[in-house]
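Entry for the shared binder. Reason: the reviewer on the internal report wants the predicted structure included alongside the sequence.
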Amino acid sequence: MKLSLRIFTIQTSIVLGLTTITPFVTIQPKVIAQAREEYEFNCAGLGDIQPSPTDNYLIQWNNAALLAIRNSKPAPTVVARSLAILNTAIYDAWSAYDPVADGTRFGDKLRRPGSEQTLANKNTAVSYAAYRVLVDLFPTQKSIFDDLMVTLGYDANNTSTNTKTAIGIGNVTSQALLKFRHQDGANQLGNLAPGAYSDYTGYKPTNLPLDVFDPNSIYSTVLDPNRWQPLIVSDGQGSKTSPQKFATPHWYLVIPFALKTASEFRSSVGKTHDFETPGYKSQADELIGLAARLTPQQKMITEYWADGPGSELPPGHWHLFGQCVSKRDRHILDDDVKMFFALSNALFDASVAAWDAKRNYDYVRPITAIRYLYKGQVIADWRGSVRGEEWLPYQKDTVVTPPFPEFVSGHSTFSAAGAEILKRFTGTDTFNSSVTQKAGVPFRVQPQNPPAPTQDITLFWSTFTDAADEAGISRRYGGIHFADGDLRGRNLGRQVATRAWIRAQELISGRAEK
């Protein structure tokens, strides 16, 4: 997706009492993010998503957050939580200037009179709220957020807590949200165990680390072929990494947005295939067959949806699709506040539910299962005929397989949840968008082997559901998820999104319990 995400300085703000005067000035645009240069995105026939002087402030703050995510490379769970906190902070500040909406921390207690419910005050409140939470979430990326405050004409040093002003609303609502989220079990502050977002539950893998470059490693490291195994992969500099650590194994303890508990829908995902059952081998055989027959389009699907380190990851990817909807449907600030509030919190709850399943089942990844089943035999992968103990998924050698158990697929859960929210908000499943990899642009897994495709490859999604389903199956093409992990993850994502949608609508409509 060739997305040039920029923030344009089109106005400066002068805060006078309860209102904001916004004289227009012309200033050179400042590039704050650029992603997926190898792909050309077509948003519902509008072409690539390009910045505009009319982009609302929520979009600009979300773009700043996506840049911080790309720079800092957090786990998918942390991305989902961070974007939910950002868009909840924006929503809470905005709700004070809406006639009916209830905030998540103060309800309707901070509601300002109708005469103050102006776009200028909304912009000011959401900007201060967004700034405060983003600096808290991404302290090493503070310069990005400082620059945006200057661009928008605000003084980041104004810490007023006067809730009769828009600045005070933004500061007070964001601090209340942060106070709550600092104690939500994510361990953001490292007060439950040393290190931000570190595990405090004592998780230890059953199996010893697998060196993916040593074919003999599979013979001595698998103690239980049903359980997850950490990998040793390439560091991209000619050396190997330390063994993987399960990213955020404590996430099942994080307080969700709408779910009653992290395990609320766990029973619906069913059970995994035990090593002693025929299903264990059949699910591995399916992936071996897929890998051996990968088409150029399937390779593109795998690579486009990979969303690995250095990207905005799956939760951020669906926020970019949300921006497409915003452009397509000509949203104003109020529309996007409501949509991204529901979208980000559904994705957050998807992270909690998916990681609950991952921690509970601790299930084996395909690379371990296939190498263990077929060691000493000749099978096939995307490179051709290989020994079973050498089988590789179609992934970059710096990734090979993400650092957490297989069941269920996070990609599938996130994507199904994102699609469900966008479908419900727009009232239709219609997406009609596409992405193209141009002829001559090499594949990323092995840029020189095979050569770049000789023709353009286009992925088209007529519906949000089509896009979500493709994201899910991409993990099977890529050899890192079994069919059950994908399909049951999709079902879990839809269930979670439905619950998050209902909760979001209760708050937006002012029908939440006081």
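Summary line for the report: The two ends are 43 Å apart (CA to CA).
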